[in-house]
Amino acid sequence: MLGSLYRLSKLVQQFVGLMGSKVIRSIFGGVRLWAFLRGCHKNGGRQAQPPAQLFHLSVLLTQFQEMEYVSPEGLRLDGRRPMEMRQIRAEIGVVAKADGSALFEMGNTKVIAAVYGPREVQNRSQQLNDSALVRCEYTMANFSTGDRMRKPKGDRRSTEISLVIRQTMEACIMTHLMPRSQIDIFVQVLQADGGTRSACINAASLALADAGIPMRDLVTSCSAGYLNSTPLLDLNYIEDSAGGADVTLGIMPKLDKVTLLQMDAKLSVETFENVMQLAIEGCKAVATYIREVLLENTKQLEYRRGI
Amino acid sequence: MVGLSIGEKHFIQGGIAQDLRSDGRKRLTTRPIYVETGVISQANGSARVRMGATDVIASVKAELGRPNALQPDKGKVVVNVDCSPTAAPMFEGRGGEELSAELSVALQCCLLGGKSGSGAGIDLSSLVVVEGKICWDLYIDGLVVSSDGNLLDALGAAIKAALSNTGIPKVNVAAGASGDEQPEVDVSDEEFLQFDTSRVPVIVTLTKVGRHYIVDATSEEESQMSSAVSISINRQGHICGLTKRGGAGLDPSIILDMISVAKTVSEQLINTLDSHIAAAEAGEEES
Amino acid sequence: MAGKGGATPSTYSPSPTTQKTKSLSFGNDEVLRPDDREWHQCRPAFFQIGVVAAAAGSAYADFGSTKVIVSVFGPRESKKAMMYSDIGRLNCNVSYTNFATPVRGQAYDLGSDHKEFSSMLHKALEGATILETFPKTTVDVFALVLESGGSDLPVVISCASLALADAGIMMYDLVTSVSVSCLGKNLVLDPTLEEESYQDGSLILTCMPSRDEVTQLTITGEWSTPKINEGMKICTDACSKFSQIMKSCLKGLDSALEEEDSNVD
């Protein structure tokens, strides 16, 4: 029994090696899978393995190709429930020189957004006479990913995300109030662990609010996916790269309108509805938190002005 | 970059001449410095340093690689700086590249010493695992998040802090590999070796405005500079690198004078930085 | 080229002349440098102006095996995209030929145009050029390193200032530049490529000798203050000697062959 357990755990370690041990280990600090395997390894001596975990292990080993993203107990790789979001944290005013700025964290994903403007249009040929010009640039720090990035600036992915963020934010900014002016949104990813798109939109939303730019509503965003026949909220990097469907949704919670909807892979209409409903719930949760942060910030400003 | 009226320019220059700068500092006083370590969990070591409105992040990543054939007993260190557009709209797209390249070169010059590797702040031979076969490649990445002058000093401090925070995994080399074979290694994920940072220099930039020079200039003050000399000095008081910016020429004797001023400033800076780093490390362990 | 010496090869024989064979034992005072120079002696320097007919001004310099050609174009109208400026702009570019290095195209690892050197050249020249005399316009300085034989940047800088003078661009003074390498205890003036690869530290000083002003100073490696003093002294002395040669070259005196044996001691 002892020997076979040891062999099992060795096999698992090899399997993890196959998956790219670096990715798994470095992407999230407290990976449940890893801890679980380690625990197994250590407990092996004491023969204190609950049968459920043994079962889990054997499933893992027989299905090298299909990874288990939701354990039979209904827990995900990082220990969350399927409907659970990662911890979110936001901070306003992190870049002193910008007109508005915010830091937004979703688990290990960490982004900074800075807003400059509204100001004079830099490039006259782009000037719009009836509305403000909104520009956006998305950049990833080269230490943001598990393996160091060597990609040059402005690759296709960044350009695409820049465009997505710009369009999403444009929808909520009241551009008609600021004709012939320009608003720049710069988002910088410090750490990427899935859901950077959503995190960037949330950060940009906060930064715009901090800059005092008139908006119809806050835009909040959250992603949801579908793996192991379970809808999952707020995918992390491993779940995101598993190849299942990934729905990124952006909504204006007060107006109850969708401004962004992206999905890859395929889903049946019924499942899609479920997943989208889950993402909406996620967005609303983010919105509640963002409101709190903004309110707190306003209170502080109020206090400083002595009102 | 910084739009200032003539009145404002005179105000800054006049203040410096009278040893009272716009933010109330004296010429040789630095802004308070804030150090936070371990901000990037995926890196082997990282730190965020803030000086006033200047905010930079440095991260250190170690990867196993092969040493250069010409220097089999040395690891490799690459310093790279990026200017995020969040710091200033002018860094958008390729706009920040010029400044990034300049900062990278200056930092490389200050940290890595001469071509033979002597006088380097980072001991390259300590990075070797198996001579001629395996070594650690250290990738030091700096990111300017917010910029209000004195970027080089802030980056230098952040890199020093990040290196103090760096744990390099212990590597066990499987015995038996001989000849030209690449030996098998087992990277431990529990045991880490602390990096020796006592030799890593700090950088002090003296910015010359009018007839005087100041330390830790803000971007408004930098816009009025005639030239700036960045000097990297280690704990022993040795110069580890020097670069000059700005067009105007300087008398050789002034440069020597600047070096001696920088030395005294650097002593304070090293001490404050070390205590801040220690405090940040202690704080990180608690939480 | 000490390694080559001796019999002249009549047929093609690929013999790696430098590198590998010698492990130099510097620090021993009796050992002379590979090219039999004294520690504080420069390589023979040669300057010539007006070598590129199409350019507004041009200069060629060779210091031993380091050969550089610089051409200056302009002043021309600044690009429309650039903002109005009441002073002129310098646009500097340093590039290496494919055959500049011992291994073909080695310099291309750094990119065909050497960004680092380009910005250093710009910094060295901008302080000496009277930019106010050509507002709204740009002067292009293109430097091409034909053969890299050590101390490339200082040679490029000196040569560029000569080319600027040839183009009639107003300057406060000629800019001359020299580097010293620290090899063990010794300071070596005007190091060759071989010496540079062994150096513990280097100091590049760029100055305007008549005004006694330093426009650019770069130090790498660990230096003590007395050593910096000494290094700067050696460099400024050498710079003033070079400026004499460059001036006579501009005046057309003996511009055909100007050999230099500047023994600073």
Salient structural properties:
heterotrimer, A: 307 residues, alpha+beta, Ribosomal Protein S5, domain 2, four-stranded antiparallel beta sheet, 8 helices, 39% helix, C: 265 residues, five-stranded mixed beta sheet, 23% helix, cytoplasm (chain B), exosome (chain B), mRNA 3'-UTR AU-rich region binding (chain B)
Strand residues, percent of chain B: 25-35%
**CATH structural class of chain C:** Alpha Beta
Task: Look at the structure and give the CATH class of chain B.
Answer: Alpha Beta
Overall tally of structural domains of chain C: 1
Main sheet of chain C: which strands, in order across? 1-2-3-5-4
Q: Could you spell the SSE succession of chain C in H and E letters?
A: EEEEHEHEEHEEH
Point out poorly predicted stretches of chain B: none
Rounded to an integer, what's the Rg of chain B over CA atoms?
Answer: 20 Å
Secondary structure blueprint with pairings:
The complex is a heterotrimer of chains A (307), B (287) and C (265).
Chain A: H1 2-18, H2 21-27, H3 32-43, H4 51-62, E1 88-92, E2 100-106, E3 109-120, E4 133-140, H5 156-172, E5 181-191, H6 196-210, E6 220-227, E7 230-233, H7 237-240, E8 245-252, E9 257-264, H8 269-305
Helix pairs in contact in A: 1-3, 1-4, 5-6
Chain B: H1 6-17, E1 33-37, E2 45-51, E3 54-65, E4 76-83, H2 97-112, E5 128-130, E6 134-146, H3 151-164, E7 167-173, E8 185-194, E9 202-209, E10 212-215, H4 219-222, E11 227-233, E12 239-245, H5 252-286
Parallel strand pairs in B: 4-6
Antiparallel strand pairs in B: 1-2, 2-3, 3-6, 5-6, 7-8, 9-10, 9-11, 11-12
Chain C: E1 45-49, E2 57-63, E3 66-77, E4 89-96, H1 115-126, E5 137-147, H2 152-166, E6 176-183, E7 186-189, H3 193-198, E8 201-208, E9 213-223, H4 225-251
Parallel strand pairs in C: 4-5
Antiparallel strand pairs in C: 1-2, 2-3, 3-5, 6-7, 6-8, 8-9
